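Re: the 353-residue chain
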Amino acid sequence: MNQIEEELLKFKLAVESAAEHIIITDPEGKIIYANPAASRTTGYSLDEIIGQTPALWGKQMPKEFYEKMWDTIKNKKETFEGEVNNIKKGGQNYIASLYISPALDANKEVKYFVGIERDITKEKQMEQMKDDFINITAHDLRTPATATKGFLSMILEGDAGEISPEVKKMVLEAYEGNERLIELVNNFLNVSKIERGKIIVTPKPHEIAEIVEGSMQGLKTQAEERGLYLKCDAGTNLPKVMADEDRIIEVLNNLISNAIKFTQKGGIQITHQVDGGGFLVTNIEDTGPGISKEQLPNLFQKFQKAGALSDTPGLGLGLYISRLIINLSGGKIWVNSEVGKGSTFSFSLPVVK
């Protein structure tokens, strides 16, 4: 056996042993090869699959889905990724992650298509169970927490009679703890809604300075109470951005309140600049303790915190939510930080063309 034959044998063994459903089709989608996993996934025998098209178990998605798929793999000659609803031979529905890549010849023409499917039905069912649990739990927590907030507020405002400074301090601590609980519950609900596509970001032309001012109004007092400055250099002649005002204010609230929370002296400076690539960048720079390079990758992940954030209350959802919102807005979010020199959180938004 020569080297080429050995390599081909390795390839065949690897593909036929793969857990993922793998097929190869001609340029028109007719199946010329299928591995054993394709039979296990679809319920059709290999003899029934060969010579057919994937419509044998597919054709459950909207017309637009397949139009985009064919445009991607046949016209653009790029890999297509997606999730599809399919039907097994016995009529059972299943959900699969799908990857289709064109195999090109020396003239850059499509010779074959290689399709890989993985049944993710159980994963989707587990995700739905998790979302249902979060929604039920969060709603059950928010109702009494909101009522508690109202009663504590009435006590602090003197509606129940005058209270001593010592009692007022304890009630204020209870009020702030209840506020953290409400924020946590709202974050749980936001994460669940965004991940399931229930929250839609609707960008419209806006002045970024006006959005920032809307966020700062509610946070200036918080900064002043900690002896910090909170400034914004609005800049001049800045282009409008495409943004969902409410959602971007939510991002700014997360970033600015974090900066206030972890900065002991100095303050927070907000600046803007056009990056030259059709985006406007907003920077929130603080004089806090900074974050080490090793910990930076954790910041925008769900339930992850790093550096000074790791010892503070909360589950690390604010930055994760911010990343989801900015991604849905067509921008990016990142951080530059150095221990002992503070942090700069930045995000970009598309400018109005």
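The mean pLDDT is 88.
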